[in-house]
Amino acid sequence: MPSSPPGYAFRGPGLDRSELLRERPDDLRARWTAARVLVVDTDGNARFPEAAGGCGFCLGADLAGELPDAASFLGLGEEGAWFALPHESLPEPLPGRMDLRSAATEWPARDAAALAEARALLHWQQRNRFCGGCGHALALGKGGWCARCTQCGLEHYPRTDPAIIVAVTDGERLLLGRQATWPKGRWSVLAGFVEPGESLEQAVAREVMEEAGIPVLECQYAASQPWPFPAALMIGFQAQGLPLEPSVSDELEQARWFSADELDSAVATGEVKLSPVLSISRWLIDEWRAQARARREAAPAG
Questions:
Q1: CA distance 68 to 90
Q2: 3-class SS at 16?
Q3: Beta carbons of 180 and 132 less than 8 angstroms apart
Q4: Which long-range contacts (CB under 8 A, 24 or more apart) does 59-64 make?
Q5: Residue 176 in 3-state DSSP?
Q6: Mean pLDDT across the chain, nearest whole number?
Q7: What is the reported pLDDT for 51?
Q8: What was the pLDDT predicted at 1?
Q9: What are all long-range contacts of 56-63, with beta carbons under 8 Å and residues at least 24 apart?
Q10: How far apart (Å, rounded) are the C-alpha atoms in residues 141 and 125?
Q11: Residue 102's beta-bridge partner residues?
């Protein structure tokens, strides 16, 4: 189990999503004027007036006199309702811009989580305009959380793609891999999407074997992180693997075991660059390093 609370992005309490309000359009319209609105462009960036400084959101009253058809209800905060609005629906562009990764490090945690929610929801809406059953146009309802076919009546809901991410150890070393497209020196724990009809534990064993040729003996859930780039949920595990020499497929350029001392030294010299601190991958690595450090300190001298 984790030895400390997760310290990565989008982890803390978010908005109260208040699902029942999605079915009450009159209530949503009444909340619009005083609402905070996250305007998101097609690249997933928050857009706002220059005068907003670093806050990143707009007020409903400053954008439109009444709730726009394109607005989606995100939930309730202590200050009231929050909505998401596509930037392209505005008559004039907003000059301020903030990408989600930057917001995760610069904004309050709750606001960054709200932007992650808005980005993922609007991405789904933008790419699901026609029915997968009959091909006709979809109409948004339930505060933006349902797309109903205007022809056959089929309802479509936002999808989230589950992906496992796993810190594999052989008891003394941590297994890390790197992709050829990553920056020089970047290493991370292994990850991959869950396939249809597969349990999370099966996905852990399959991905580690596919990517590094290491059999997994057992695994344990550690933590999770929404990762709206564009619509993943990273489900973190700690796993025990056989101490075999890694054998990579075309998914990885390299994979290797690192002892705690080797990893600490490589990070200190810049030979190894770990994942950014906003990611669960970095948290899994740091958790393993902390546990390895604790074992060394607890070991009897001599």
A1: 10
A2: strand
A3: no
A4: 59/33, 59/34, 59/35, 60/32, 60/33, 60/34, 60/35, 60/36, 61/33, 61/34, 63/37, 63/39, 63/90, 64/32
A5: strand
A6: 94
A7: 62
A8: 43
A9: 56/96, 56/98, 56/103, 56/107, 56/111, 56/115, 57/82, 57/111, 58/94, 59/33, 59/34, 59/35, 60/32, 60/33, 60/34, 60/35, 60/36, 61/33, 61/34, 63/37, 63/39, 63/90
A10: 11
A11: none
Classified as helix, coil or strand, 34 is coil
Q: Which residues contact 158 (CB under 8 A, 6 or more apart)?
A: 120, 121, 124, 145, 231
pLDDT more than 90, % of the chain: 90
- In 3-state terms, the chain is what percent helix, strand and coil (to 5)? 30, 30, 40
- Taken in order 125, 126, 128, 130, the sign of the CA dihedral is positive
Q: Which residue has the tokens 């790197």?
A: 178
**Residue pointed to by tokens 């497209």:** 181
Interval 236-276: pLDDT, tens: 999 999 999 999 989 899 999 999 999 999 999 999 999 99
Q: CA nearest 239: which of 291, 165, 161, 163? A: 165
Question: Taking the model in full, what pTM does it have?
Answer: 0.92
What single string gives the DSSP state of each residue in 191-248? EEEPPTT--HHHHHHHHHHHHH---EEEEEEEEEEEETTTTEEEEEEEEEE--PPP--
Q: Please count the helices (runs of H) and the strands (runs of E) in the chain.
A: 7, 15
Write out pLDDT tens, residues 155-200: 999 999 999 999 999 999 999 999 999 999 999 999 999 999 999 9
Q: Is 160 exposed, middle or buried (0-12, 13-18, 19+ CB in 10 A)?
A: middle
pLDDT of residue 52: 55
- Spatial neighbors of 262 by CB under 8 A, at least 6 apart, are none
**Pair 172, 259: CB distance under 8 Å:** yes
